[in-house]
Amino acid sequence: MDWDKLRVFFAVAEAGSFTHAGEVLNLSQSAVSRQVSALEESLEVPLFHRHARGLVLTEQGDILYRTAREILQKLNIAEARISESRERPKGPLKITTTIAFGSIWLAPRLKEFLEDYPDIDVSLMLSDNELDLSMREADLAIRMMPPTQSDLVQRRLMTLHYHLFAAPEYLEKHGTPEKPEDLEDHRLIVFGEEFRPPVPTLNWLLEVGTQGDGKRKAFLRVNSTYAIFRAVQSGIGIGALPHYLSQETTNLVPILPELEGPDVDVYFVYPEEMRHSNRIAVFREFIVRKVGELVE
To answer: How far apart are CA 253 and CA 59, in angstroms?
Structure first.
């Protein structure tokens, strides 16, 4: 199979038209069309359905597109590894983690890393949904659960301990609970069950101190730890938050400190192909050092 033709085919599949692919490849529309037609002739199958509104991959075209994408991703990894300087790490580094951890803890600490490694081009992508590292949606991830994919390298960074917190203004208005049973009379902010909490027992404050199988009613349900953090900060009610969040602000007051929720392990994760990446190595060292500064 001719690699040049495969490269043109992939650009067309990505762009959805010969014209747009030609603009990306700096080729004429007719030249792009000829390359794709020649590839179809050599394979003896149509790769696109052609119609007035554009191009749609055939079943055979979709198979070839997925294979070509995988090949290009592996070539990009190889190129990055070859071009990396042994003396000074450089190049792009795409980092993904949760919205709460990335916004509140990680982002403010990146200044030191960026100053130490100005040749590393960092992109921070925050999402409570996991990006696919094997498909190079990101180079590395900091995740609140172990990876399920076997081709990913993982290192446990730390364990998050959950406690109850409220803002001073909430406590001034509603009082401070003295024992777990007192939570019955307070406004509780939790992770909505319909949003699939990242940890099944994350809403433990609805049950702690209750009788039998009883469960308290939540005052507010959200789908993000960061939203719980902001809601608690604003004085809406009491919420369960990981301990590192309380160290990033001055207006969170611990409630019933003897109570502790589920422990959540945090992992540093990256693809096996990136094991020898200098960029990954120096960022891993940086994160391990910063995590070591956390007071548990």
So the answer is: 58
Task: Please give the chain's pLDDT, 296 residues, in tens.
Answer: 788 899 899 999 999 889 899 998 999 999 999 999 999 999 999 999 988 777 899 999 999 999 998 888 888 777 766 665 555 788 899 999 999 899 999 999 999 999 999 999 999 999 888 888 877 889 999 998 877 777 789 999 999 888 999 999 999 999 999 999 999 889 999 987 766 666 667 788 888 877 766 788 889 999 888 999 999 999 999 999 988 887 777 789 999 988 888 888 899 999 988 888 889 999 999 999 998 887 55
CA–centroid distance for 277 within its chain = 20
| Structural domains for the chain | 3-83 (1.10.10.10), 88-296 (3.40.190.290)
116 phi and psi angles, rounded to 5 deg: -75, -30
Question: What pTM value is reported for the model?
Answer: 0.66
What's the distance, Cα to Cα, between the start and end of the chain in Å? Answer: 57
Beta-carbon count within 10 A of 198 CB: 16
Task: Pull the structure tokens for residue 168.
Answer: 């001073």
